[in-house]
# Entry
Amino acid sequence: MIESVARQAFGKSDRELPGQGKRVSFLGVPLHYGQSKAGVDLGPGAIRVAKLTARIGRLGYEVTISATCELTGRVPCPCPAKS
# Structure
């Protein structure tokens, strides 16, 4: 199947995929700490819903997905001094 996808997308065999021999890792890390904008923490879920990891895998990359990390306390954020 990878070979047919590669031929359709790139006109190449599976041995010539752009990600062949390369690895990509997705880390589930809470990003909303210290952020003033709502929605920052939606990014990892959006990647999963869009099945981006499967699409990247079809390009020949070896994809690793880690579980979402849990933080056990507030993490202080160094804020710039207000003038």
Notes: The beta strands are 23-28, 62-68. The CA atoms of residues 32 and 54 lie 26 Å apart. The chain is about 30% helix and 15% strand.
